[in-house]
Amino acid sequence: MREISFIEATREALTTAMEVDPTIFIMGEGIGKRGGNFTTTLGLYDRFGPTRVCDTPICERGFVGLATGAAMTGTRPIIDFMFIDFILDAMGELINQVSKIQYMSSGRLKMPILLRGCIGIGHAAATHHSGSYYPFFVNIPGFRVVVPSNAYDAKGLFATALQCDDPVIFLEHKSIIFNKTHVPTEEYTIPFGKARIVREGRDATVVALCSMVDKTIVASERLAKDGYSIEIVDPRTLAPLDLATILESVHKTGRLLVVDENFQPCGIGAEIAAGVIDQAFDDLDAPIKRLNGAHTPVPYSPTLEGAIVPTVDTIEQAIRDLLAE
Amino acid sequence: MSDSPQLDSNQLDIKKDQLLTLYRNMLLIRWCEEQLARSYAGGLIHGACHTYVGEEAVAVGVCAHLRPEDAVFSTHRGHGHALAKGVHPRALIAELMGRATGCSMGRGGSMHLFSPEVGMMGTSGIVGPCILQATGAGYSFKLLKKDNVGVAFFGDGASNNGAFHEGLNMAAIWDLPVLFICENNLYATEVPISYSAGNPDVGARGVAYGIPSVIVDGNDVLAVYEAAGEAVRRARSGGGPTLIECKTYRTRAHSEGMRDAGYRTQEEVEAWKERDPVKTYKQRLLDAGLAPEEDFEEIEADTQALIEDAAEFAKNSPWPDAATATNFIYSEASHA
Amino acid sequence: MATEIRMPRLGWTMEEGIFGEWLKQDGDKVKMGDFLFTIEGDKATQEIEAFDEGILRIPPDAAKPGDVIVVGAILAYTVRPGEAAPFATEPAASAVAKPAVPERVTAAPQAITTHAPLTQNAAGRNTEHSVTISPRARRVAGELGVDWSALNGSGRTGRIVERDIRAAAELAAQQPAESVQAQEEKVRATPVAMRMAQEAGVDLAELAAQKAGVRIERADVEAAIAARAPSTSAAQPITGESIPVSNMRKLIAQRMLESTHNTAAVTLNTEVDATALVALREQLKAAFTPRGYSVPSYNDLFAKLVATALQEHPLLNARWQGDEIVMPKEIHIGLAVDTPEGLLVPVLRNVQAQSLRGLADQSKELIAKAQARKLSADALQGGTFTITNLGMYNIDGFTPLINPPQCAILGIGRIVKKPAVVNDQIVPRAMVTLSLTFDHRVVDGAPAARFLDTVRQLIETPLLAITS
Prior knowledge:
heterotrimer; B: alpha/beta; Rossmann fold; two-stranded antiparallel sheet; 42% helix; C: alpha+beta; CATH 2.40.50.100; Chloramphenicol Acetyltransferase; 7-stranded mixed beta sheet; 4-stranded antiparallel beta sheet; 29% helix
């Protein structure tokens, strides 16, 4: 089986979908001729032309609003934000319109918009180009939030997103989008709301998000040498969230750590912890722990930037601390 | 301002029965809005109710050129657009009364009216998004190679919002089939446009985006009709967007129940009432001998009956079932 | 047809408005847009216009300036010329809103639960040792039948975690198989219990595991027998009038068993000459009653005398706590009260510092509340000693059960005239039997007896209590 990168995998799913469905079009800055800052649309402009692969002026609120109207009138827009930080200019359109139109129209209008962008800290991108922001969208009713951690999942989830009639926020962590893994050439979908057990274990459960999955795998391998067996759960989607798989895992291991680069306050870890305490209280052998990136705007200098994100070392220590509880 | 067109139906690109239809539609809006105001005062309508009294010529003049598949996106003052686009008064009044038979099944109320079956793609409680969404409809129609148009109805207040700039610009650069109809009633709630706009002639801004724009007397239904007709023809034939500023006025308060004082004088209101689009149009048709009194009486009787029936229907309609309160958030019922 | 003019809704949340004044009169011709009346708003007066043309008809009981009117209420009518006004014969009662009286939310009467103080070693609660245990470990302990109360936890904070439970279970399982004799010896059970168990076929070892290391008594075996599924050889359940077991009864049962199992109870009896005490009470009655003071009951007097004695014998006011026996300075005496629902023991606070009047008032209130089931949980906690009086039922001596975590309880019998020997003469004296049960783990027989003797002295010469 061949190996391709996360971005290539999404591009494969995208191209296939665009060939089959003529109502799909993409809008974003630099995604036309240039093929996207992160190569999300490389080669698509020549294949599908400027109306289906449309370069926009710098007006995120504008083209998200445009996409809203388009989705209501028979087409399936994809908005490629490049850096997800740019989505913030469009929050009014997203929260007041996109997330609510199906509801306000009592289901007679669908909202098949895919909103994609690159998230995450790294490469000294500094604070305007390093955000993740997914808890907002998980909190608001109406959105699907997808956070793949690898190329195989990315392709399947992207394909599902392009068949979904709900607005999907598809988030791609910058530090993993060029990572390669085995990806089948044929088409496949991965359903939303189904987590993946990345690694089976008995001593503790670690729920890891996006770029944290690979780091947690490395940390777990270190712990395996000391005889600890760590189970890793990758939720893959945050809305809907597969709490059932996490509960099953905690039932087995009794200990839970959530590793998330994004901020701790009101973060995904808080939501997972609340759900687990509510439904698996008697399975818990230790308090639920969360390891997050620091609650700060992202600094520029590499020594500062490196200090604010979970690393393999800090993840390993967090798991050890959890085991000692 | 363009001159009012001659009322010679042979010269005008409009048939006699269409002339009467314009009157009928304006009267429907007028009397429906007055009924809503009455119902609001009677405690039957919850939340907000922004009436369109005085602006009927704009909705009617524009929508006369639209098909059901054309998409209209409106703002908080949208009952007139909904009726002109084909929403039945029963569905409108029932919606404002919060009943299950309303066009949004009680989910939306005045500011979230949806009837996609007739191309009514929503009124909105937020000022601005309708401009962007109409642009988006234009984009869809272009991509799907349909000759439909998107229409945004918005006020002078929206013209100073970023959505105006971004929407008109995108429609311009991509030649989208969109009508941008600015209903300039001189006040955004109580803030006059003379204060809030560097250039209070919204219609003058078209040149900034490179699109055709025109300013018309928004109380003259035929003037609106003519300008809108040209814009729709342009859009359907691939000629791109048009900005039409309709100078008009609302003679009731910004929102029912609000004090309509302190920011404008009673004299100003009375002066605009003299230019009532419904009365003046009827008079012009009568003066030009284009229709006898009986025709108007018939229309008036029909409309009265229609409104009374609609109000009764709405009052007697059932409430939505509380168990459905969280339906339709997602596209499939099975999703969590 | 007449058109109704109603009180308008002026704002999203408006439910009622204050009527200002009529701007037109009854009988005036009005047209659309004419102002008919005003409404007082927060900031200004708002004029309300007519929607219809016609003759204005205002009913005789019309709204007046200052009236509070609900939104939607009919205020007037417009009629066609010549048409009659449709005034209702009854005044528009709906028009003037009643002043909004906020509903008094009264809490549903709570059943008073006499739950044990938190320091009690009820199942799973923190003990004096502050042992913590994870929910999972607690669950697994239940599943495996492990008594964790004496385990050391390996969790970071000393918490007992699953691995500790499993280790303990494994350890227990690894014990070599013992002879039945050894098992019986190992299992702490009274001889009666052992015999009963053997006869009834109850597995003592199993019972011992459930009882987590405490001595099995006859009652336990009886309970085990009763809990068994009925078989042909077992006794058939009986029928008759049944009383549902209340929470209070369950709690009393639990506490009595606890007391029986966890204390080494010994009862001392003595007969005391209460003649002087009776005389004192008569004096108090005579002095207090005309002044309207509560007359101290015998229990109040006994409580005061006991408190005085406890100050000399603090060990009887003590409790076993961890590795220490703690003797508090404050003496809080529980008073056993019989209520229709069962036994309650409200606590008299700081008896050593209270006057007789104070005690009398306090006990009167507590007893009344106890009878009315209105005692707060606080009133039932914190006692350091208890007295229980069965004299009114003509009981002399008895074997009261200690009220844990206290270490002693004084039972009081009836005060009854009996022949006594005074100066070699047989004379009638008011006598009372005292029954002191004490916990031999905390205090030995002699010190307990000395305490009881002090109590006797104080009863026989009550002036000693006032003067010492």
